[in-house]
Design goal:
The complex is a heterodimer. Chain A is mainly alpha-helical. Chain A has a domain of 201 residues: MetI-like fold (Orthogonal Bundle). The model of chain A has no long low-confidence stretch (mean pLDDT 89). Chain B is mainly α. Chain B has one domain: MetI-like fold, CATH 1.10.3720.10. Chain B is built from 13 helices and no strands. In chain B, helix 4 packs parallel to helix 7, helix 4 packs parallel to helix 8 and helix 8 runs antiparallel to helix 10. Classes of the chains: A mainly alpha, B mainly alpha. Chains A and B meet through helix 1, helix 6, helix 7, helix 11 and helix 12 of A and helix 5, helix 6, helix 8, helix 10 and helix 12 of B.
C-alpha cells in the first residue's frame, strides 16, 4: 500500500509541473501585456517599463518561470499586481469559504442523490423512477448560474425569505477559528450568527449541488440496478429477508462503491469549479476571486490559484483512488490503472 | 400445397427483411432509437433549432426586430404582444436576440466538439495502438489537462486569448480533448487484443489500415455517444464563458452573455434572465436526451432495461 501511495505521489509531480508550465505560458507568453491594464491606458512608457521591472516581467521567460516555480515550492506564489498582497495569503483567506460551500453542497448532493437513485432503482420503470430521472436530466442540462439566478429571484426577490448573496452579516462574522463559519459560530455558541450563516449558504449550496446531485442519482440508480440483479440479492430474498433489508444491507452497500468514487471526484471539482456559483451569489471564495482577477489581468493570482486548485484536485483524486482500493479488496493497487 | 409454398415465401421474405434490418450497426441503431420517444422528440427539437439557426442567419428579416439595434426609449419592456420576451437594457427585442443566439450556441457546440473529437481521437488512437513512449507522453499531457476542472482551464485560455466566439470554440475544444483521448485509448487497447486484429496483421495489413479498417469502426459507437453529450457540455461551457463576460464581443447575441448582462437587473427585469436560460436548458437537454438515446440504442444490454 505504502509503495503504491509513494508511486502515485511521484506520478503527480510531473503532472503538476506540467500544469505550472501550461498556466505560466498562458499567462505570461500568450496573454497581452498587463502593464496598460494595470496602470491604465495613459501611463507613460517609462512608468510601464519600471512596473514590468518591479515584477520581473522584463527578465527572460525561462528565468521568470524558474523564479515562479522556486517561489511556488516554498509556498510563495508571488504578489497581486493591484493590492501587492501575497497571493498565497489572499488565496488562503478565501479558501475556507470555498471549502465550506463545497462541503455543504456535496452533502446535499449525496443525500438527495443517493436517496433518489435508490428509489428509482427499486421502483424501476415506475413514476418515481421517471421523476427522478427527469430531475437528474434537468440537473445536468441547466446552467448552474442560471439556476442560481432563478433561486435568487424566487427566494430573495419574490418571497424575501433568504439573502441574495454574501456569506454572513458582517457584524456577526466570527474571528479566528477554522474559517468555516457554520462550525465557528456553533463552537462559540452564537446561534444567531449560525442561523445567519446557514441562511446565506442554503441558496448557493443548493445551486452548486444540482449538477453533482444529478450525477450521483444516475450513478446510484445504475449501480443499484446492477447489484439488484446479483445472485446474492436473490439468495437473500429467497431466504426470506424483507425487501427493505435486502435493499439497504445487500444491494446498496455493494452499489456504494462506484458511487463513493463519483462523490469524491465531484467534491474535487466543486472545490475548484465553483467560479460561477460564487460569482452569482457574491460568495467570497477562491472561484469568485479568480474570475475577478482574470477580468482585470491580475495574472500572478490566476497562476497561483490554478496551481493551487490543481494540487487540490490531484490530491483528492489520489485519495479517492486509495479509498476505492481500501473499500474493494479485489482491486490490486499494484495494477497499472489507465 | 400452394398455400404452404406461399407461407414459405412469406416467411422467407420476412427473414430477408429481418436480415436486411440488422445489416448494419446504423440501421440497427436507428431502429432502436425510433422506439425511444424522448430521444426522437429531442432529435426533432435539435432539427428545429438548426433550422432556426440557418434561417435567421441567411434571412434575418424573418426576425420581428433587428436583434442588434439599440432603442433606448424601449429599454426593459416586460413581455407583451409586441415584444414576446420583453426587451433588454438597450431596448433590443429579446425574442429576436434569443432566436439569433441559436446560431452561436450550435456553432460553438458542433465546432468545439469537432476540434476535441479530431485531436482526441487521433491522440487516443496513437497512444493505445503504439503504446510505449507515445502512450506515456500523450497520456501524461492529458493528465496535466485533467488536473484542473475543464471550465477553469477554458477560462484561463480565454483570459490569455481574449474574447471572441472563435477563441471560445478553441478554448472549449482544447479542454475536452483528454476525455476523447482517454475513451479512444482504452477502447483501442481492448479491441487491439482481438484475434481479427492479429489476423489482419498476419496477412500483412499496415498500421494505418488496421487502425482505420479494424479498430476505429469498433470504437465509433462510444465516440458518437460521447460527442453528442459533448455538444451539450460545450454549449454549457460557452454559456458560462459568456456569462462571465469572456465570450462574444458586443453586440453579438449569445445566450450566456445575455444572462450575464441581465444579471445587473435581476430584480427589476427578471424576464431578461428567464428566456436565454430557458433556451440554453432546452438545447442542452435535447442533446443530452439524444446522446442517452443513442447510447441505449447502441448498447443492447442497456436497451433491455
Amino acid at each position: 500500500m505504502l509503495k503504491y501511495v509513494v508511486k502515485r505521489l511521484l506520478q503527480a509531480i510531473p503532472v503538476l509541473i506540467g500544469l505550472s508550465i501550461v498556466v505560466f505560458l498562458l499567462m505570461r507568453v500568450f496573454s497581452a501585456d498587463p502593464a496598460p491594464v494595470v496602470l491604465g491606458e495613459h501611463a507613460t512608457r517609462e512608468a510601464m517599463d519600471a512596473w514590468r521591472d518591479a515584477y520581473g516581467l522584463n527578465d527572460p521567460i525561462w528565468k521568470q518561470y524558474i523564479d515562479f516555480l522556486w517561489g511556488a515550492l516554498q509556498g510563495n506564489l508571488g504578489e497581486s499586481y493591484y493590492t501587492h498582497a501575497s497571493v498565497t495569503d489572499e488565496l488562503m483567506a478565501r479558501f475556507p469559504a470555498t471549502v465550506e460551500l463545497a462541503l455543504v453542497a456535496i452533502t446535499i448532493a449525496s443525500l438527495v442523490g443517493i436517496t433518489l437513485g435508490v428509489f428509482a432503482a427499486v421502483n424501476k420503470n415506475t413514476a418515481i423512477d421517471g421523476v427522478s430521472m427527469v430531475l437528474s436530466l434537468i440537473g445536468v442540462s441547466m446552467p448552474i448560474f442560471w439556476l442560481g439566478v432563478l433561486l435568487i429571484i424566487l427566494f430573495a426577490g419574490i418571497l424575501h425569505v433568504l439573502p441574495s448573496g454574501g456569506r454572513i452579516d458582517p457584524l456577526m462574522q466570527p474571528r479566528g477559528g477554522t474559517g468555516l463559519f457554520l462550525i465557528d459560530t456553533l463552537a462559540k455558541g452564537d446561534t444567531k450568527a449560525f442561523v445567519d450563516a446557514l441562511r446565506h449558504i442554503i441558496l448557493p449550496a443548493a445551486a452548486l449541488s444540482m449538477y453533482s446531485m444529478a450525477i450521483i442519482t444516475r450513478m446510484t440508480r445504475s449501480s443499484m440496478l446492477d447489484t439488484l440483479n446479483e445472485d446474492y440479492v436473490r439468495t437473500a430474498r429467497a431466504k426470506g429477508l424483507r425487501k427493505r433489508v435486502v435493499t439497504t444491507h445487500h444491494a446498496l452497500r455493494n452499489a456504494m462503491l462506484p458511487v463513493s468514487t463519483v462523490i469524491g471526484l465531484q467534491l474535487g471539482s466543486l472545490l475548484g469549479g465553483a467560479m460561477l456559483t460564487e460569482t452569482v451569489f457574491a460568495w467570497p471564495g477562491i472561484g469568485k476571486y479568480i474570475v475577478e482577477c482574470i477580468l482585470k489581468s491580475d495574472f500572478p493570482v490566476v497562476q497561483g490559484a490554478v496551481l493551487l486548485i490543481g494540487v487540490i484536485f490531484v490530491t483528492i483524486n489520489l485519495i479517492v483512488d486509495l479509498i476505492y482500493v481500501w473499500l474493494d479488496p479485489r482491486i490490486k493497487y499494484s495494477k497499472e490503472e489507465g | 400445397m400452394a398455400n404452404t409454398t406461399d407461407a414459405t415465401i412469406t416467411s422467407n421474405n420476412k427473414e430477408q427483411q429481418v436480415a436486411k434490418k440488422s445489416e448494419s450497426l446504423w440501421s440497427d441503431m436507428w431502429y432502436a432509437l425510433r422506439q425511444n420517444r424522448p430521444a426522437m422528440i429531442s432529435l426533432g427539437v435539435i432539427c428545429l433549432l438548426a433550422i432556426i439557426a440557418i434561417v435567421t442567419t441567411i434571412w434575418p428579416e424573418v426576425l420581428p426586430y433587428n436583434p442588434y439595434k439599440q432603442n433606448m426609449p424601449q429599454s426593459f419592456q416586460p413581455p407583451s404582444a409586441e415584444h414576446w420576451f420583453g426587451t433588454d437594457q438597450q431596448g433590443r427585442d429579446l425574442f429576436s436576440r434569443v432566436l439569433i443566439g441559436t446560431r452561436i450556441s450550435l456553432t460553438v457546440g458542433f465546432s468545439a466538439v469537432a476540434i476535441s473529437l479530431s485531436v482526441g481521437v487521433t491522440l487516443g488512437a496513437i497512444a493505445g495502438y503504439k503504446g510505449g513512449k507515445f502512450d506515456t507522453i500523450i497520456m501524461r499531457c492529458m493528465d496535466i489537462m485533467l488536473s484542473v476542472p475543464s471550465i477553469l482551464l477554458a477560462i484561463a485560455f480565454m483570459a490569455a486569448l481574449g474574447r471572441g466566439i472563435d477563441k471560445a470554440i478553441i478554448a472549449i475544444g482544447l479542454v475536452s480533448i483528454p476525455e476523447y483521448a482517454r475513451i479512444v485509448r482504452s477502447q483501442v487497447l481492448a479491441v487491439k487484443a482481438n484475434d481479427y486484429v492479429a489476423a489482419a496483421r498476419v496477412i500483412g495489413d499496415g498500421n494505418l489500415r488496421i487502425i482505420f479498417r479494424h479498430i476505429l469502426p469498433n470504437v465509433l459507437p462510444s465516440i458518437i455517444v460521447r460527442a453528442t453529450l459533448g455538444i451539450s457540455s460545450a454549449i454549457l461551457d460557452a454559456a458560462a464563458l459568456g456569462f462571465l463576460g469572456l465570450g462574444v464581443q458586443p453586440p453579438e447575441a449569445e445566450w450566456g452573455d445575455m444572462l450575464g448582462r441581465g444579471r445587473n437587473y435581476i430584480f427589476s427585469a427578471p424576464y431578461a434572465m428567464l428566456f436565454p436560460g430557458l433556451a440554453i436548458t432546452i438545447t442542452v437537454l435535447a442533446f443530452n436526451l439524444l446522446g442517452d438515446g443513442i447510447r441505449d440504442a447502441l448498447d443492447p444490454k442497456a436497451r433491455k432495461r
